[in-house]
Amino acid sequence: MPRTFAEPKLVLATHNPGKVIEIAALMKPFGIEVVSAGDLGLPEPVETEATFEGNARLKAHAAATASGMPALADDSGLAVAALDGAPGIYSARWAGPDKDFRLAMDRVWEEIGDNPSREAKFVCALSLAWPDGHDETFLGTITGALKFPPSGDRGFGYDPIFVPTGFTQTFGEMDPNNKHAMSHRAHAFEQLVAACFTEK
Ligand code: ITT
């Protein structure tokens, strides 16, 4: 049986402002107060695990232990078929120390080279951890195709080059509410809600 989340408040264990906006929007109907790891001045743990779930757990437990509150972490990224799933768990690291996603998107384009495949997916692991060491962790994905050059300034990260299957606009171009309804993060969140949350 998954553990029910019964506390009034949780820590969003991320230092990425784009994720804070998206997760806060997903959490809105549940009347839970959220505070971000950045706001609390929590340290950013080194992501040493080899999977999205492993790194999400690592970040959630680090924030829960440091804050004494339940913490929700997101580990996510873009997996490109022509690159055997890269950048994958290294998606943030491809942007370099300045978090320059123009650079990261250019690298994706360069590494695809003359491979005709444009197939890609976004993956998101969400982990909710409690200070006693328990966690509940879920994985969501969305498939799509890459489109170059980057287009649209909504969203964050690799959104300007990702067109979800069945659509023509990139995540960077579309209304954020549409992205929130279908994204890898939304799919992981649906599972978290079904397992752990009760709507208020
Ligand atoms: P935290 O670890 O503090 O949460 P981070 O940005 O380092 O922040 P990740 O290690 O999970 O997070 O890196 C995931 C990267 O994948 C992220 O920086 C984005 O560039 C990209 N990414 C994840 N979800 C995305 C989305 O919905 N749209 C665009 N890019 C996304």
List the keywords.
alpha/beta, globular, binds inosine 5'-triphosphate, 200 residues, six-stranded mixed β-sheet, Maf protein, 22% strand
N-end to C-end Cα span? 21 Å
Query: How would you sum up the major sheet?
Result: 6 strands, mixed
**What structural class do the secondary elements suggest?**
alpha/beta
Q: What is the typical, i.e. mean, pLDDT? A: 96
Q: What proportion of the residues is helical, as a percent range?
A: 25-40%
Q: Give the total of domains.
A: 1
- Unreliable residue stretches: none
Name of the CATH architecture: Alpha-Beta Complex
- How many helices? 6
Strand element count:
6
Radius of gyration: 17 Å
What small ligands are held by the chains? inosine 5'-triphosphate
What is the gist of this entry?
The protein has 200 residues and is α/β, with parallel strands linked by helices. It has helices at 17-27, 37-40, 52-67, 101-112, 176-182, 184-196, and strands spanning 9-12, 33-36, 71-80, 119-129, 135-146, 162-164.
What does this structure look like?
β1, α1 and β2 form a beta-alpha-beta unit. α5 packs across α6. 32% of the residues lie in helices and 22% in strands. The protein is α/β, with parallel strands linked by helices. It has a 6-stranded mixed β-sheet. The model has no long low-confidence stretch (mean pLDDT 96). The protein is globular. The protein has one domain: Maf protein (Alpha-Beta Complex). The protein binds inosine 5'-triphosphate (ITT). The site of inosine 5'-triphosphate (ITT) has 24 residues, from β3.
